[in-house]
Amino acid sequence: MDHAQPQTTSGTPPTARLRTLFGKLRDLDLRVGRIAVATGLEVVLEGCASLDDSAGRPLRYRLRSCRGDAHLELRLVDGMIELERQDDQGEVLGSRRVELAGGAEGPVTAASIQARIDPDAADARETERFLRRIVRAAFV
């Protein structure tokens, strides 16, 4: 995946492709180093908290920061990824929807966060980059 401005593909990606993407995000159980999400605030992604759930269910990733532990829940809603940050008691700290565009093949694009990924072909590194952009978007 390059860092160029993603090309926008018209239309909503088929649900099956979005489930493939969610399955990939879940199965890789990504744990990445610090992610700068705001001025003076970094979070550490500590893996998927919903490993046993099917790809059609919301994903929950554990986050750790100087402000405490939290979860980031990702849901597919009408061709968008709905992001919801929750504290460890389940209280909502913030939410956002990221619109997705794409077709039956090729990349799925999230233009508002300058990200794209091909759910069928992305490797672990490309999936991590996509997830980093999703995490940053949850704090905007």
List the helices and strands and how they pair.
Blueprint: H1 15-27, E1 31-38, E2 41-48, E3 59-65, E4 68-77, E5 80-87, E6 92-99, E7 108-110, E8 115-117, H2 124-137
Antiparallel strand pairs: 1-2, 2-3, 3-4, 4-5, 5-6, 7-8
Estimate percent helicity: 10-25%
Proportion of beta-strand residues: 35-45%
Low-confidence stretches: 1-8
Number of strands: 8
Q: What would you report as the Rg, rounded to the nearest angstrom?
A: 14 Å
Derived structural class: alpha+beta
How many domains, as an integer?
1
Report strand order across the widest sheet. 1-2-3-4-5-6
Order of helices and strands: HEEEEEEEEH
What distance separates the N and C termini? Answer: 23 Å
Average pLDDT works out at 90
Please count the helical segments.
2
**Overall 3D shape:** globular
Largest sheet: 6 strands, antiparallel
Description:
The chain has 140 residues and is of the alpha+beta class. It has one domain (15-137). The protein is 19% helix and 39% strand. The chain has two helices and eight strands; from the N terminus they run αββββββββα. The strands form two sheets. The chain has a six-stranded antiparallel sheet with strand order 1-2-3-4-5-6. Strands 7-8 form a two-stranded antiparallel sheet. Strand 5 (80-87) and strand 6 (92-99) form a beta hairpin. The longest helix has 14 residues, at 124-137. The radius of gyration is 14 Å and the shape is globular. Residues 1-8 have low confidence and may be disordered.
